[in-house]
Design a protein that fits this description.
Radius of gyration: 18 Å
Largest sheet: 3 strands, antiparallel
């Protein structure tokens, strides 16, 4: 399966984001970048995360510590929702619903 990549410099120009913001996100392990054809790139799958982080940072003025905490809480909520769905399925299977 071939990964699709976005060139970071082009993305930052298009979205009016400082390229150092991408560096900071990578330093905080919020995203991963990779070199492709001599240019730093971002996997397309991470675009929703970068957009969410940039809105939190630029529009809501939330610092990186806050963004990291929000990311952690959202991931935890997703895990809990998956557990709820599994438990509901078990209840349906045993006819308890």
């Amino acid at each position: 399966m071939q990964n699709e990549w976005i060139i970071i410099a082009d993305y930052c120009d298009q979205c009016h984001i400082d390229p150092s913001f991408i560096d900071i996100l990578e330093d905080w392990d919020l995203i991963d970048t990779q070199m492709e054809d001599g240019r730093r790139c971002l996997p397309c799958a991470q675009l929703p995360d970068v957009e969410r982080y940039s809105r939190l940072y630029y529009d809501l003025d939330i610092n990186l510590e806050g963004i990291d905490a929000i990311r952690h809480l959202l991931a935890r909520m997703d895990e809990m929702q998956q557990e709820i769905d599994r438990l509901r399925n078990k209840l349906r299977f045993f006819g308890a619903e």
